[in-house]
Write a structure and sequence with these properties.
Blueprint: E1 2-3, E2 6-7, H1 17-39, E3 43-47, E4 53-56, H2 58-64, H3 68-71, H4 86-100, E5 105-112, E6 118-129, E7 135-144, H5 147-201, E8 211-216, E9 221-224, H6 226-232, H7 244-264, E10 269-277, E11 281-293, E12 299-308, H8 310-354, H9 356-375, H10 382-409, H11 412-416, H12 419-434, E13 437-443, H13 451-472, E14 476-483, E15 487-494, H14 512-522, E16 526-531, E17 537-544
Parallel strand pairs: 13-14
Antiparallel strand pairs: 1-2, 3-4, 3-7, 5-6, 6-7, 8-9, 8-12, 10-11, 11-12, 14-15, 15-17, 16-17
Helix pairs in contact: 1-10, 5-8, 8-10, 9-10, 12-13, 13-14
Length: 550
C-alpha cells in the first residue's frame, strides 16, 4: 500500500489456537466413535434412500472378510456378503423401498460367513429423516440368530409360565389347606364323639350305634344286639348259641383269639383290627372287651363292644394322603421359588447383554450428528466447539449409563474374579457415592467358591449396604468375609442408629429381608440380624458346606 507517498507492506495475523483445539477434539471424538462403531457385535451400516451403501462397520466386513472399498457405493442388495438369489434381491429392494418412505422394516434373511456357514440374521432398516420429514438416510442393522437368542426367547416364555404356575399352585394350596383344616377339625370332633360313646356303651346294653356281645368261656355267643347282627350280616337268631369261629370264620377267630385269652384272664382289652365280614369284605373294627364276672367275681366270659371304623380309617388314610400331597406341593413350590430366583438372575444377565440395542439407536443418532458436522461444518471456527459439545455429552452419558446398568444387573467381577473382588469393587463405588467409611476384612476364604454361593452372599451384602445407606445414618461400616472347614460367612456391621430387631412389623414393609432369607434358605444357609436402637446393626449370613469344594 502507499502511505504518505511511500510504499509499505501490511501484515495481518489471526490467533487460530482455539480452532486447532476444536479440530483436534473433533478428530479425537471421531476416533472414539469409530472405535465403538466398529467393535460392536451388531452389523451396522448407512444407506442412501435409494439403497446405495455409504458406510458399514468392521463387524459386518469381518463376517465375510471384505474391505470397505468392495462394498461402499454399491446397491445394498448387490454387496458381496449376501447369498444372493432373485427372491432375496427383490426382498431387500422391497424392504429398502419401504424404509425410504419412512417405515421401520424388520425381517429375517440368510447371511454367509467367511467360513461358508449360512446363518439366519435378524435384520432391520431404520429411516432417518430431516426436519421436514424427508428420509435422508437409512440405517441397516442386523444380529445373528443363534441358539442363545432363541434360548432367551424361550426363557421369557418359561418365566411367564412359571409365574402362572406359582399363582395357580398357591391358590390350589390355599384351598387344599383350608379343606384339610376343616377335615381335621371334623375328624377330631368325630373322634371325641366316638370316645364318649365308647365309654357309654361299656355300661349300656341297648344301642343302635355299636355292636354289643356277651360270650361264655366256651366261645359261644350268649347275647348280641341288632347292631352287631347287622355288622356281621346275620340275623340275631343265627348268632346266639353259635361258636365265634362259626360267625367270624376260622381266620377271623384266629385273629382275635389272643385278645380273648387276655380278657378271660381278667384284663380289659381294647384294640383295632381288620376282619373279613362274610359278604362284606374287610372291615376295620374298634373292639373293647371287658371280663364278665359272676357274683363271686370269677370270670365266666366276656362282654364287648364292636364299632365299625372303616369310614374313619378311610378318612384318616385320605387325610394322610392329602398331607403327603401337600408336602409334595410345598416341595414343588420351593423348587419353583428356586427356579424363579435362578430365572431372575439369568434375566438380569440377559438384560445386561441385550439392552445395548437401546444404546445402538443412540449411537446411530450420534453417527448422523457427526456425519452432518463432517458434511456441513460451521462456517465460524468458534462454533465448532459448541456444535460438538452435545455429541461429547451424549457419548459420555452413553458410557456412564451402559457401565452402571450392566454393573447393577450383574457384576462381571463376580463370575471372573470371585466374591472378594466383586465386594471390593462395590465398596469402592459405594464410598465414592455415599462418603461412608467402609472397610473389608477377608480370612481363610476357599480358593473356589461356587458361583451360586457367591451370588447369594453378594446379594445379601448389596442389600445390607443399601439399607445402611438409606436408613442407618451410619458413618462407618465393617464388612467381613470368612471361611472355615464348615462353610463361608459374611457379616456387615454399622455404627448407625439401629432398630428394634424384635419388632417384626417393620420387617414386613419391604422385600429386602425376605429376599435375603429366601436366598440363604435355598443354599441351606441362615441369616441372623442383631440390632438395637442407637446401638448399630450387624447382619450375619452363613452358607454351610454340603460337599467339598473342588
Amino acid at each position: 500500500i502507499t502511505l504518505k507517498g511511500k510504499r509499505c507492506l501490511l501484515t495481518i495475523g489471526n490467533d487460530i489456537t482455539e480452532r486447532k483445539q476444536a479440530e483436534d477434539a473433533l478428530h479425537e471424538s471421531e476416533q472414539r466413535f469409530h472405535a465403538i462403531y466398529d467393535q460392536t457385535y451388531e452389523f451396522i451400516g448407512l444407506l442412501t434412500p435409494d439403497g446405495a451403501l455409504i458406510d458399514v462397520n468392521q463387524t459386518a466386513l469381518a463376517f465375510r472378510g471384505l474391505q470397505r472399498s468392495e462394498v461402499v457405493g454399491k446397491p445394498f442388495w448387490e454387496t458381496p456378503w449376501w447369498d444372493l438369489s432373485e427372491e432375496l434381491r427383490e426382498k431387500l429392494k422391497t424392504a429398502i423401498a419401504k424404509a425410504a418412505t419412512g417405515e421401520f422394516v424388520r425381517l429375517r434373511v440368510q447371511h454367509r460367513s467367511l467360513d461358508g456357514v449360512i446363518e439366519e440374521i435378524d435384520f432391520s432398516l431404520t429411516p432417518i429423516t430431516d426436519r421436514t420429514g424427508k428420509v435422508t438416510q437409512i440405517i441397516p442393522e442386523g444380529r445373528r440368530i443363534t441358539p442363545l437368542t432363541n434360548a432367551l426367547d424361550q426363557l421369557r416364555e418359561t418365566q411367564a409360565g412359571l409365574e402362572r404356575q406359582v399363582l395357580e399352585r398357591t391358590a390350589a394350596l390355599t384351598q387344599l389347606t383350608e379343606q384339610l383344616r376343616t377335615e381335621i377339625t371334623e375328624r377330631k370332633r368325630v373322634e371325641e364323639v366316638l370316645r364318649v360313646r365308647s365309654a357309654e356303651l361299656q355300661i349300656t346294653l341297648d344301642t343302635a350305634a355299636t355292636g354289643l356281645v356277651r360270650n361264655g368261656r366256651d366261645f359261644r355267643y350268649r347275647w348280641v344286639n341288632v347292631a352287631y347282627a347287622k355288622l356281621v350280616g346275620r340275623p340275631v337268631e343265627d348268632i346266639v348259641g353259635h361258636m365265634v369261629s362259626d360267625v367270624l370264620g376260622d381266620e377271623g377267630f384266629a385273629k382275635i383269639r389272643p385278645y380273648i385269652d387276655r380278657v378271660l384272664s381278667g384284663e380289659r382289652v381294647e384294640y383295632e383290627t381288620e376282619l373279613p365280614i362274610s359278604g362284606r369284605g374287610l372291615h376295620w373294627l374298634h373292639v373293647v372287651y371287658l371280663p364278665d364276672r359272676d357274683a363271686a367275681g370269677d370270670v365266666i366270659g366276656w362282654v364287648g363292644s364292636i364299632t365299625d371304623i372303616t369310614e374313619r380309617k378311610q378318612a384318616e388314610d385320605a387325610v394322610l394322603e392329602r398331607q403327603r400331597e401337600l408336602q409334595q406341593s410345598q416341595a414343588q413350590l420351593q423348587d419353583l421359588t428356586a427356579k424363579l430366583f435362578s430365572v431372575q438372575d439369568s434375566e438380569r444377565q440377559r438384560i445386561a447383554r441385550d439392552l445395548h440395542d437401546d444404546f445402538s439407536q443412540r449411537l446411530a443418532a450420534l453417527v448422523l450428528d457427526v456425519t452432518s458436522l463432517q458434511q456441513q461444518p460451521p462456517l465460524l471456527p468458534e462454533l465448532i466447539g459448541k456444535a460438538l459439545e452435545p455429541v461429547r455429552e451424549e457419548l459420555q452419558q452413553l458410557c456412564n449409563d451402559l457401565h452402571d446398568l450392566a454393573y447393577r444387573l450383574h457384576p462381571p467381577l463376580l463370575r471372573h474374579l470371585g466374591l472378594q473382588a466383586a465386594i471390593e469393587d462395590h465398596i469402592a463405588k459405594a464410598i465414592e457415592r455415599t462418603g461412608l467409611h467402609i472397610t473389608l476384612r477377608a480370612n481363610n476364604l476357599p480358593g473356589a467358591i461356587p458361583l451360586d454361593w457367591s451370588l447369594c452372599l453378594f446379594r445379601v451384602f448389596q442389600e445390607s449396604l443399601q439399607n445402611v445407606a438409606k436408613h442407618a445414618r451410619a458413618t462407618e461400616v465393617s464388612v467381613r468375609l470368612s471361611g472355615s472347614s464348615k462353610g463361608v460367612g459374611l457379616s456387615v456391621i454399622d455404627n448407625g442408629r439401629g432398630f428394634d430387631a424384635s419388632d417384626k412389623s417393620g420387617h414386613q414393609k419391604g422385600l429386602g429381608l425376605i429376599s435375603m432369607q429366601e436366598r440363604l434358605r435355598l443354599m441351606n444357609g441362615f441369616l441372623n440380624i442383631h440390632s438395637r436402637p442407637a446401638g448399630g446393626t450387624k447382619v450375619c449370613a452363613w452358607i454351610p458346606f454340603q460337599e467339598k469344594i473342588p
